[in-house]
Design goal:
This protein is of the alpha/beta class and 181 residues long. The chain has a single domain, classed as Rossmann fold (3-Layer(aba) Sandwich), CATH 3.40.50.2020. 25% of the residues lie in helices and 29% in strands. The chain has four helices and ten strands. The strands form two sheets. Strands 2, 3, 4, 5, 6, 7 and 8 form a seven-stranded mixed sheet that branches. It has a three-stranded antiparallel sheet with strand order 1-10-9, covered by helices on one side. The radius of gyration is 16 Å and the shape is globular.
């Protein structure tokens, strides 16, 4: 598997440091709202699981997790095929503080779809957090309040991100060799 890697883009120590920084930013903003408020985290499966697991360990707030499953990169696709929900969303978010969390902001279709659907459920506060945002016009046009890293427009794997359901277990963000795709 490691022979499929062209290069490491973000090493594990940089990931750990930035996730802790993001948690600090979130904690400050959440404390400013209401330090006792319950936060509903909505991670997008499956890519965000490692990121969310590391992020919540740094958040000192009362948290509830409501996962959602969406897909835009089925199988061996390396470009978005359009977002589709693959499971239900939380029904009643009226008056709640909601943080939508995803692994990567690329085409923006998944986060746009989810933000619209979640907004209809009446949260008091809705923000988005992504580990990675590609440096493209379409990615930057999607509202996202918390961004871990800005990256070039290339296909990456590791730390939860996959290609054909492989490579999620790599402890860093890496670029695959073209012949491995």
């Amino acid at each position: 598997m490691h022979s499929d890697i062209e290069r490491i883009l973000i090493p594990r120590n940089a990931l750990a440091r930035r996730v802790a920084e993001l948690a600090d930013e979130l904690a400050r903003d959440l404390d400013a709202l209401d330090p006792d408020a319950e936060i509903v985290l909505i991670p997008v499966l499956t890519g965000s699981i490692i990121f969310v697991a590391d992020l919540i360990r740094h958040l000192p707030h009362k948290l509830r997790i409501e996962v959602v499953t969406a897909s835009s990169y089925p199988g061996r696709a390396t470009t978005s095929q359009g977002a589709a929900l693959a499971g239900p969303l939380p029904e009643d978010l009226t008056g709640r503080h909601v943080l939508l969390i995803d692994d990567i902001l690329d085409s923006g279709s998944t986060l746009t779809l989810l933000r619209e659907e979640l907004h209809r459920r009446g949260p008091q506060w809705l923000r988005t957090c992504v580990l990675l945002r590609k440096q493209t016009e379409r990615a930057r046009s999607v509202p996202c309040e918390y961004v871990g890293f800005e990256i070039a427009d290339e296909f990456v794997v590791g730390y939860g991100l996959d290609y054909d359901n492989y490579y999620r277990n790599l402890p860093e963000i890496a670029v695959l060799r073209k012949d491995a795709m």
